[in-house]
């Protein structure tokens, strides 16, 4: 058997007949005076048996090193196995990290969290940092993904809007809910609304919750929510008369949608129960002035906050225009409305 090889990753039940139960409280065991006089060490970690060297266990200033030096008391059973009352599921990975300085980690978040806890227990700082870096990388990947919830019921929609701390923009899109034929430009405008929704998601995904509803009664309708209530609505469909029959017309009010999307940002990070927007409260975060603060100072602070909101609004408008600069009509329409 190789000195660096693990005996196996057996579970506790499979080795009970061959290996005594961990003897931390047994009179048969004895405390180690230190294992530095030996070259090899046998470890029984929750029934999982491992055979390695003192040199491997001493590579980092860890709990395992302190066991080898005798700084930490452990139980050694009559057969010479160092008994550790710990799950042995990930102990082989801990040993491999000490041997090689790096190990591949699983992508499953729960399993990665288990390995981190084992690394923290054994105080293997290199493995702890390795796990934290992997978790941060997973988090960065997760945050870069745009996830758009699909509404499946009115009850679900109400709960989502009521509990969300972000502003909410909903696009209701149900082309099949139409009694009449469409006008010639309706299909094109319907696709433009969907494309604009996707572009807004990419731009404001971290600040606004975007949802889609394909089961509602409206063919194409935008709804904007803040603090759990509807703030604005842009309906893009109407019924028109053409010769002897009615037709459904789908419009693309791009500038209006831009405007309402930017307006809804004022409700960002401001869910604080019933009441108005504290950002616009000229006296600060509460209804009363702070200690030693005059009404003039409170009003000045309120003016500064309003200016910051206005500056943020303009900055987001310019970024949005830049994002959609390939569409010259959209940029001109938004500029005209701001004037």
Automatic annotation (TrEMBL):
GO terms for molecular function: ubiquitin-protein transferase activity. It holds the Pfam family BTB_2. GO terms for biological process: brain development; central nervous system projection neuron axonogenesis; negative regulation of Rho protein signal transduction; neural precursor cell proliferation; positive regulation of apoptotic process; proteasome-mediated ubiquitin-dependent protein catabolic process; protein homooligomerization; protein ubiquitination. Residues 1-31 are annotated as: Disordered. InterPro entries: BACURD1-3, BTB/POZ_dom, SKP1/BTB/POZ_sf, T1-type_BTB. Residues 39-139 form the BTB domain. This is Potassium channel tetramerization domain containing 13. It comes from the Eukaryota. GO terms for cellular component: Cul3-RING ubiquitin ligase complex. Belongs to the BACURD family. SMART domains: BTB.
């Amino acid at each position: 058997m190789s000195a660096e090889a693990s005996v196996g990753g057996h579970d506790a039940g499979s080795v009970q007949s061959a290996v005594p139960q961990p003897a931390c409280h047994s009179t048969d065991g004895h405390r180690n005076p230190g294992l530095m006089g030996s070259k090899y060490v046998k470890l029984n970690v929750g029934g999982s048996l491992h055979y390695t060297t003192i040199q491997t266990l001493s590579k980092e200033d860890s709990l395992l090193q302190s066991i080898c030096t005798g700084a930490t008391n452990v139980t050694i059973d009559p057969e010479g196995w160092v008994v550790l009352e710990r799950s042995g599921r990930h102990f082989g990975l801990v040993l491999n990290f000490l041997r090689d300085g790096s190990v591949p980690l699983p992508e499953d978040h729960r399993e990665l969290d288990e390995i981190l806890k084992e690394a923290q227990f054994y105080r293997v700082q290199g493995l702890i940092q390795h796990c934290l870096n992997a978790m941060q990388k997973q988090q960065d990947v997760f945050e870069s993904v745009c996830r758009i919830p699909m509404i499946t019921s009115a009850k679900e929609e109400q709960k989502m809007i009521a509990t969300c701390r972000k502003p909410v923009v909903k696009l209701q899109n149900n082309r099949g809910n139409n009694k009449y034929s469409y006008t010639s430009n309706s299909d094109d405008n319907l696709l433009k609304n969907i494309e604009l929704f996707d572009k807004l998601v990419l731009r404001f995904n971290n600040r606004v919750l975007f949802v889609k509803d394909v089961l509602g009664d409206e063919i194409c309708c935008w709804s904007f929510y803040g603090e759990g209530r509807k703030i604005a609505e842009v309906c893009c469909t109407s019924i028109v008369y053409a010769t002897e029959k009615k037709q459904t017309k789908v419009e693309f009010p791009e500038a209006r949608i831009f405007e309402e999307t930017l307006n809804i940002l004022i409700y960002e990070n401001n869910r604080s129960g019933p009441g108005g927007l504290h950002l616009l409260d000229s006296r600060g975060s509460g209804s009363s002035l702070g200690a030693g603060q005059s009404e003039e100072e409170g009003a000045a602070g309120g003016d500064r906050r309003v200016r910051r909101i206005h500056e943020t609004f303009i900055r987001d408008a310019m970024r949005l225009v830049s994002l959609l600069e390939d569409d010259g009509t959209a940029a001109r329409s938004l500029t005209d409305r701001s004037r």
